Amino acid sequence: MSHHTYKHIELTGSSEKSMEDAVQNAIGKAAESVKHMRWFEMVDTRGHIEDGRVAHWQVTVKVGFTLE
């Protein structure tokens, strides 16, 4: 059985479309420079309201990745 050591980072992604899209945007951007990401946990969700409608989502996620 292999053992892993993880490091955590916190990211905030945004989207005009959905919470899921905001998470995908955060993880997709981080993937450009962070290797071996393994899991995420949503820790905060916020939104911006315009004219009585949700106009923008912000989602903060903790992301764990294995160290080399």
Task: Walk me through this protein's architecture.
The model has no long low-confidence stretch (mean pLDDT 95). The protein contains one helix and three strands. The chain has 68 residues and is α+β, with helices and mostly antiparallel strands.
Radius of gyration: 14 Å
Report the portion of residues in β strands: over 45%
Span between termini? 17 Å
Q: What is the 3D form?
A: elongated
Secondary-structure element order, as H and E? EHEE
Strand order of the largest sheet: 1-3-2
Number of helices: 1
Number of strands: 3
Strand-pairing-aware structural class = alpha+beta
**How much helicity do the residues have?**
10-25%
Biggest sheet descriptor: 3 strands, antiparallel
Global mean pLDDT: 95
Question: Which regions contain 5 or more consecutive residues with pLDDT less than 50?
Answer: none
Descriptive labels:
1 helix; 56% strand; 68 residues; alpha+beta
